[in-house]
Each structure stands twice: as structure tokens, then as C-alpha cells.
Design goal:
Helix content is 55%, strand content 11%. By secondary structure, the protein is α+β, with helices and mostly antiparallel strands.
């Protein structure tokens, strides 16, 4: 079976390189404009649930028509295309965090294909129950495996949602560690490149002190949304803590990542990020970039953090490349 793609091939080629980031949205002074989309974290789970419901309805109909193995050749046709459409949609909605779900999704597709083969075999079976009963036994067994497979995927989706930061909607440190381990494996086995970027909002304490913590929360939410929108669907954006974020850019060398992040920095600094009662509030950030290599992941993060510290020390509102190399 072909591997499940997170986005159509045409879309991948269209966004194979980073582009100039769009203008960050200017939110009003209220809370609603900057609040995370409450439905977004639930979308992939709802789509997966729909796939399961379509499948469960088929299985019930199939068993009724077959009278639990006693009506040879009476199995209902499996709506495989509709089920797989919703399954793939759920994986697309999961985006960059779907890596651990891909094997489960592929297993479901293989099971659905096997079920179609069993139904075709039943249709061609003669009217002797002795010939059909073993096929029905296997169909029921495999049918229950598919139901369990959907349940397993929903559990993983729920765990991912629970690990997301409730303010920004971004995944946190646990998800970051898992992603870096997966990307490091690709770096070591296939010679890929990957850059890790530490991002910190400049003078964020002053935002809280001068405008209040509620405005500070709105800044964090809007900032997270702009970072996510400025990168490719399969790049990673994580909230590391406070006003600090981490970007994971697979396929990017460290020097290339500096240019990418600097374009985002310029775009965010060019116009207000949120609107307050006192007017538009402009935000600046500093960043440090490190290459993901064979060294320990903790060391890679430390090198990116050191580069971030260097950017802060030299005036903020800039992006620095690590100086510790592959040590």
C-alpha cells in the first residue's frame, strides 16, 4: 500500500521552500480575536470519529445481512473510499505531529483492503455454509481489529491534545523531545538536515507590566499563530516555556534557517501584532539557531539557547547562529 501523505504532492511542491511570511493579523483590544480556535484541536478527532462511525455502521449492516455467518455471500460492500478519506483528513489535520500516527493509519488501510478481499471472496462463495463460515470468522475477527485500530488512534490524538499548551494551542516540551528524536533518526540514517531554533520575545516583561497579563497572553497567542502560519505544514512550532518557543525545521541547514527566521522576525517587527486601548503593539524577538546532528539533543538545545543569549546580549531583535558547532 502507498504511504499516507500529510498533504497532496502538488501542495508539497508548492510549499517546498519557505516563503515570505504573511502580515501578522492585527487583533483588536478584546479577547475573542486572539483566542485560539477552540475547535481546532478537536477537528482531527472529530474527523477520525466520523471514519469510525461509517465503518461501524458498515460492520453492523454486514453482520445483519450475513446473519452472523449463516447467509453465505450476503456481506455488504465496504465504503472503503469514504472511510479512508476521513482517515487521511484526520492525519492531515494533525500536521507535523502525525508522525507516530502514520504507522497506525497505514495499518488501518491494510486491514480495510483485507476486508474488501474477504467480502469479494464471500460474494463468490457457493451456498454451502461450511465454505462460508471460516471466511465469516476471519471477517468478524478482522472487523473487530479495525474497530480497535480506530480506538487506538483516537487515544493517541487525545494524548496529543492533552499535551498541547492551552493558551497558544502549541505542543509543549514532551512533544518537542519526541519530534527531535524522530528527526535525529532521519538525520543519522538518511543524511537529512534539520535546524532547531530557540525564539524568545524581547522585553516581554514590559508588555505584562505596562499592558497587563491579559494583553501578554494575547501577544503570546498571536505570536504563536504567526509563527505557525509562516512555516511549512510539516515544520514544528513548540512552546518551550513562558515567552520562549522552539522551531524544528526539517530539511533546513542551520545557515538557511537563520535567513528563514530573520525574514519572519522582520515581518513581525514591521507592524503591530495586537491592538490595545493605547494603540497597536509592536513585538520584536531574538532567536538562536543550531543544527540537529549526532550530538545529544540536550546539547543541541543548549547550543541554540546560547546563540539566543548572544542575540540578546548584542542588542536583541536579531537571529544568531550557534558557535559550538557539532561539539
Amino acid at each position: 500500500m502507498p504511504a499516507i501523505a500529510l498533504m497532496p504532492i502538488a501542495d508539497r511542491s508548492a510549499r517546498s521552500e519557505w516563503f515570505d511570511p504573511p502580515a501578522p493579523p492585527l487583533a483588536d483590544a478584546g479577547n475573542a480575536a486572539d483566542a485560539p480556535d477552540a475547535d481546532a484541536p478537536l477537528a482531527e478527532t472529530s474527523t477520525l470519529r466520523l471514519a469510525r462511525q461509517i465503518y461501524a455502521a458498515w460492520l453492523q449492516r454486514c453482520l445483519r445481512q450475513g446473519a452472523y455467518r449463516h447467509n453465505p455471500g450476503a456481506g455488504a460492500a465496504l465504503p472503503r473510499a469514504a472511510i479512508e478519506h476521513h482517515l487521511d483528513s484526520a492525519l492531515q489535520l494533525a500536521g507535523a505531529e502525525a508522525a507516530e500516527l502514520l504507522p497506525l493509519g497505514e495499518m488501518q488501510r491494510n486491514r480495510l483492503a483485507a476486508l474488501c478481499s474477504l467480502i469479494a471472496t464471500l460474494t463468490g462463495t457457493d451456498q454451502q455454509p461450511a465454505h462460508a463460515v471460516p471466511i465469516w470468522d476471519r471477517l468478524i475477527e478482522l472487523g473487530l481489529e479495525v474497530l480497535q485500530g480506530f480506538a487506538d488512534m483516537e487515544i493517541v490524538f487525545a494524548a496529543q491534545r492533552a499535551a498541547h499548551d492551552p493558551l497558544t494551542g502549541l505542543p509543549g516540551r514532551t512533544a518537542l523531545q519526541q519530534r527531535l528524536l524522530a528527526e535525529q533518526s532521519l538525520v543519522l540514517r538518511h543524511g537529512r538536515t534539520c535546524a532547531v531554533v530557540m525564539v524568545d520575545i524581547d522585553h516581554f516583561k514590559e508588555v505584562n507590566d505596562q499592558h497587563g497579563h491579559q494583553t501578554g497572553d494575547r501577544v503570546l497567542t498571536a505570536f504563536a499563530r504567526v509563527l505557525r502560519g509562516a512555516l511549512r505544514p510539516y515544520d514544528g512550532v513548540y512552546r518551550y516555556g513562558g515567552e520562549e518557543f522552539v522551531l524544528v525545521l526539517p530539511g533546513a541547514a542551520a545557515a538557511q534557517a537563520v535567513r528563514i527566521v530573520d525574514r519572519i522576525r522582520q515581518s513581525i517587527a514591521a507592524r503591530p501584532l495586537v491592538q490595545t486601548q493605547a494603540g497597536g503593539l509592536q513585538i520584536h524577538f531574538s532567536a538562536g539557531v543550531a543544527a540537529l546532528t549526532e550530538r545529544a539533543i540536550a546539547l543541541t538545545l543548549r547550543c541554540a539557547d546560547q546563540a539566543l543569549y548572544s542575540a540578546k546580549a548584542e542588542g536583541r531583535d536579531q537571529v544568531h547562529l550557534e558557535r559550538c558547532g557539532s561539539a
